[in-house]
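tool_call predict_complex ligand=zinc ion
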Amino acid sequence: MTTFSLPWRGGLIGAYYYATLPGRMLINASAARNAKAPVMVIYYHRVADRKLNDWTISNTQFKREVDWLEANFDLVSLDEAQRRIREGNTRASVSITFDDGYAENCERALPLLIGRKIPCTYFVTSCSAQEGKPFPHDVADGTPFRPNSIEQLRSLAAAGVEIGAHTRSHADLGKITCEERLRDEIVGGRDALERELGVEIRHFAFPYGLHENLNPVAFRIAKEAGFAGVCSAYGGYNRPGDDPFHLQRIHADPEILRLKNWLTVDPRKVLRIERYLYELPNPKDHHGKEVQRVRDAL
Ligand SMILES: [Zn+2]
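tool_result ok
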């Protein structure tokens, strides 16, 4: 049982969601008319029907969420999400991603997405796939779930699922100061997957993904190594005009009302969540923006 299942919490979020929905719809419609619709990226971990925990959603709930997503958004790949951030977006979009690489996801969840031709990026920790060992955080919890095998990942890639990198050992990169170690986790993890799977790995997701788990040096290494983009996981909306290299992701909550609350753009979250900046703004760009602002005001 998770704390999310407490009925009073569901009641509160429901009251808030339905009370603010009409206002949100007006704001979202205006953003879409101006090609500024949000470009959202969500992440799952494990879809399974036993031993549910905070990073597991049941197959029934997963299907319910996918049905709702399909009916209400453009479901796009990360490449398309980045294109919309660069060029503008006239309809709210969602990209579906998974982190870590749990074997059970291949039973129903991924076949569901593949069957409906819904794009998906699957971020994998290379050591777990290569060695077949459960994740240390699951072992510590007494739930040593099986990771995906290399064969499973090959089949997913062949079926059109984009495989992404998620370090070698699921290390917290926010704590690593040694550049060589960072490079080994980010680039080494990617190269190992590329060798095993014979596909190009283009996107990277930070393990844990909160502000404290990110690292400006890691962003630089990922950029220099040729990644098309990297993902964080602290929540947050991407909008046209934002930096397309850093995709902020939202946790696909096992409770659908919370997911609906996120994806219809909760004004409280817009105000509270601060985009992680991995490089200080170039004073020239800053000046350029100021000039633009003055022009816009005239
Ligand atoms: Zn992870």
